[in-house]
Amino acid sequence: MNNKLSRREFLQFAGAAAAATTLAACGGASLPAPTAPAATPEPSSPTADQALALLRDGNARYVAAKMVRPNQGTDRRASLSAGQKPFAIIFSCVDSRVPPELAFDRGLGDLFVIRTAGHAIDRAALGSIQFGVEELHIPLIVVMGHEKCGAVSATLDAVEKNAHAAGDIEALVQAIKPAIEKSKNQTGDKLDNAVKTNTVLTVEALKANAILGEEVKKGKLMIVGTRYDLDTGMVEMLA
Ligand SMILES: [Zn+2]
Question: What's the predicted TM-score (pTM) here?
Fold first, then answer.
């Protein structure tokens, strides 16, 4: 079997291309807004703003325990065999308490999810994200850190003790370490400051990536940072 897909095959995999869009600024806003479950049909090719609104609405339902669990039926499953057209990339932590499809009350074919501990960036993660943007034309990347992240906590510990983590966990420590350094003089909760800084730095790193940065510049891609609260389930906007 040939594992190398041609561009045509990639595009077949991608399904129809999503429409390009002009993006509005969204800094300072807060997910989620108190909205009722969608009464109107969802856009078939959401813009970044519409994609963000879908996530905001889904998270509001999740927080309020009023989930509608869209796109999880057998019809949806069968329809997706022809191709996928997810509307958002979620780059988040592996933590079992923060599953994106549940947190945003979405279903099959909606979210293109990349998860590494502490959403640490490596080439495989970056390649996966670029695939979502370049081949699936996804207009929105949401980086989602979370309260009490174990990977950030372990990195904080390693830095404070000037120690190395076991095995390949050290790769995570090295990836997350800049957030510890940058947030060390902030007032307030040390771990939460580091979590938020780690997410902001990840957003900056993605924007600084040549391929992704170009899409942002062209107005075809929006990249935002968020924090998931373990207690409430709420996803708030950071950057
Ligand atoms: Zn985590």
Answer: 0.84
